């Protein structure tokens, strides 16, 4: 992951707008298949005593394109492929991944996939942010909760290949992932885990 989570009270430009699930409706255009070997999800989480980062694999997906513009899409993420990249001790690494996979966090046995369904894409033109040209809205499902999120993204279409890159922070408690959250538990001390974690996505389709 390339971005740090902002732990202060101010708004981060990587923060997403979260709302109730939106109706996706029928999307026009051609369906492009997500190339899972070229697509990836990087994650970064922070706690009082440090941080951890890693990856999760994209399982499958499609992106709808009409007249050179993205109109929709569905991305499925395989939650059983959570990997930690910063812990070099094998036992510690396995323990962390096991905890993230447990019911305390993503409960991957019960909820093996997370999904993003794109409902709207708006063009952005901000000279101050040359790597962001779109505002994407979509339904994010984690565990048994689906919320609409809106986040900045860079979308490129070249030679029939579409690349979507996005880097944003979400509050895990919006999806009922409350373990170690200062919002719900008192006297956590250095056991407290930040509610916000970072997702850095690259989705390639053709």
Helices and strands in order:
Blueprint (H helix, E strand, L loop, with lengths): L16 E4 L9 E4 L6 E8 L2 E17 L2 E16 L5 H12 L11 E11 L10 E9 L2 E14 L2 E11 L21 E13 L1
Antiparallel strand pairs: 1-8, 2-4, 3-4, 3-10, 4-5, 5-6, 6-7, 7-8, 8-9, 9-10
Features:
206 residues; mainly beta; eight-stranded antiparallel beta barrel; 1 helix
Describe this structure in words.
- The chain has 206 residues and is mainly beta.
- Strand 7 (134-142) and strand 8 (145-158) form a beta hairpin.
- The radius of gyration is 17 Å and the shape is globular.
- It has an eight-stranded antiparallel barrel.
- Residues 1-12 have low confidence and may be disordered.
- The protein contains one helix and ten strands, in the order E-E-E-E-E-H-E-E-E-E-E.
- The longest helix has 12 residues, at 90-101.
- 6% of the residues lie in helices and 52% in strands.
- It has one helix at 90-101; strands spanning 17-20, 30-33, 40-47, 50-66, 69-84, 113-123, 134-142, 145-158, 161-171, 193-205.
Q: Given the structure, what is the number of helices?
A: 1
The total strand number stands at 10
The radius of gyration is: 17 Å
Strand order of the largest sheet: 3-4-5-6-7-8-9-10
Mean pLDDT: 87
Biggest sheet character:
8 strands, antiparallel, barrel
Q: What is the rounded distance between the termini?
A: 25 Å
Q: Low-confidence parts, pLDDT < 50 over ≥5 residues?
A: 1-12
Based on secondary structure, the structural category is mainly beta
Run of helices and strands: EEEEEHEEEEE
Shape: globular
Strand content: over 45%
Helix content: under 10%
